[in-house]
Every structure is written in C-alpha cells, then in structure tokens.
Amino acid sequence: MKTKTILELLTLSSSLYYIARDTQLMDRVGEFSEKGKDNINKLMSEHQLDENGNELEFVDRIIAKTHELKEELNEKIERQVVKFYKNINVAHLDEVKALNEKLEKLEATVALLEARINHLES
To answer: What pLDDT is recorded for position 48?
Structure first.
C-alpha cells in the first residue's frame, strides 16, 4: 500500500510540475500576444500618407513597416559585417607584418652567407 501511495504522490507532483510549467509558458505567450496586439493597435492608430497625400490602407502600412524593418536589419547586418571584416583584416595584417619581418631576416641571413662564400672564394 505504501508503494502505491508513493507512486501516486510522484505522479501527482510530476503532473503539478508540468501544469505549472505550461502555465508559465502560457503566461509568456500571453505577454507576447499582448505586446503584439499593442504594436498592431499602435500601427493602426498611426495615419500614414502616400506620395499623393492619400491615407494608406492597413496592408500598405504593414508593407511600409516591413520595408522599414528590412532596411534597419540590413543596416545592422552591414555594421556587423564591417566590424567582423575589420577584425579579420587586422589579423591578416598582423600575419603579413610578421611574414615581412621574417623575410627581411632571411634576406639578411642570405646576404651574410653570400658574403662568407665570397670571402672563402677569394
């Protein structure tokens, strides 16, 4: 009988845990939907005019807002790409500088060896 009671309590506690977790998830979804609804209401309350001075329809406003967001996203991506490229470019420049220094040292060594060979030949 004790084992059955323990199993029932475990089952009940796990069920309560899942219900609580689902409730938290539903609360978060509710928050997001409220924010989305507020944003849509804000967008609906704005009156945008086209180039002819006529008020844009809802779909046209959504399309215009989408284009604005697309441009914003493109600008952010461009900034990140430029930043990344600068970091990579700096790394390449450091490697090139190191290779140039190594080349100069090797040229100095070759010149010294040529001088020794010339001295031995004479």
So the answer is: 65
Q: Are 61 and 45 in contact (CB under 8 A)?
A: no
What whole-number distance in Å separates Cα of residue 58 and Cα of residue 43?
A: 8
The full length of the chain comes to 122
SS3 content of the chain, % helix, strand, coil (to 5): 90, 0, 10
- pLDDT tens digits along 40-56: 667 666 666 666 666 66
Distance, CA of 73 to CA of 81 (rounded, Å): 12
User: What pLDDT does residue 74 have?
Assistant: 85
85: tokens are: 């490229």
CB 61 within 8 A of CB 46: yes
Contact 43, 65 (CB under 8 A): yes
Query: Which residues sit opposite 49 in a β-bridge?
Result: 55
Average pLDDT across the chain, whole number: 76
pTM score above 0.70: no
3 state SS of 3: helix
- Show the CA angle centred on residue 111, arms to residues 108 and 114, nearest 5°: 150
